[in-house]
Design brief:
Strand order of the largest sheet: 1-2
Largest sheet: 2 strands, parallel
Shape: elongated
Helix content: over 70%
Distance between the termini: 60 Å
Structural class: mainly alpha
Radius of gyration: 29 Å
Order of helices and strands: HEHHHHEH
Number of helices: 6
Oligomer: single chain
């Protein structure tokens, strides 16, 4: 009976060892930094973002100037004029907030521009990772640059340079 149980345990161990999953690690941050078109796109996005932010800041300064003028002229204005000026200030502030949302919101111009510039590069990297995974018969590929808590990875598991080579950016 003992021999039967030991034999079954041994067979189960061999079975599970033979079917172990293969996995690898990539560093997406490292890969992206080594793709010149990604860096160019990132610089372009930063320039656009700075320009749009300066537009928003300039309009917000106009709102602040309108409010300061309103405060200094407050004692000389009639109730109707006060109401009219307050409405103008609130309307201008709302338009600035709308502009900011149009530029930087979740469905804003910056998001759309980022999608149009970055998505093709990311898709190309993803396709290269898939091809390498199929070639090496990998079951899982982890990104060690993401929020995942990876304390240590063996260099044997790292395939980031392979991905760069597949994309034509070999070091």
């Amino acid at each position: 009976m003992k021999k039967l149980i030991i034999s079954l345990c041994l067979l189960a161990g061999i079975f599970f060892t033979g079917n172990a999953q293969k996995f690898a690690m990539v560093d997406m941050e490292y890969i992206m930094k080594n793709i010149p078109s990604y860096e160019t796109a990132n610089d372009q996005l930063n320039q656009i973002s700075k320009k749009w932010q300066s537009d928003v800041d300039a309009q917000m300064q106009d709102v602040q100037k309108m409010y300061k003028n309103y405060q200094t002229e407050l004692v000389f204005l009639s109730d109707d004029m006060k109401t009219k000026r307050e409405e103008e200030i609130v309307a201008k502030e709302k338009s600035v907030q709308e502009l900011k949302r149009n530029y930087f919101g979740p469905e804003g111009e910056l998001f759309k521009k980022r999608q149009s510039l970055m998505k093709p590069i990311q898709d190309e990297v993803f396709t290269a990772i898939q091809e390498i995974s199929k070639e090496k018969e990998l079951d899982l590929v982890f990104d060690k640059s993401s929020a995942m808590s990876v304390i240590f990875t063996s260099p044997k598991l790292e395939i980031s340079d392979m991905v760069l080579q597949k994309l034509g950016y070999s070091k």
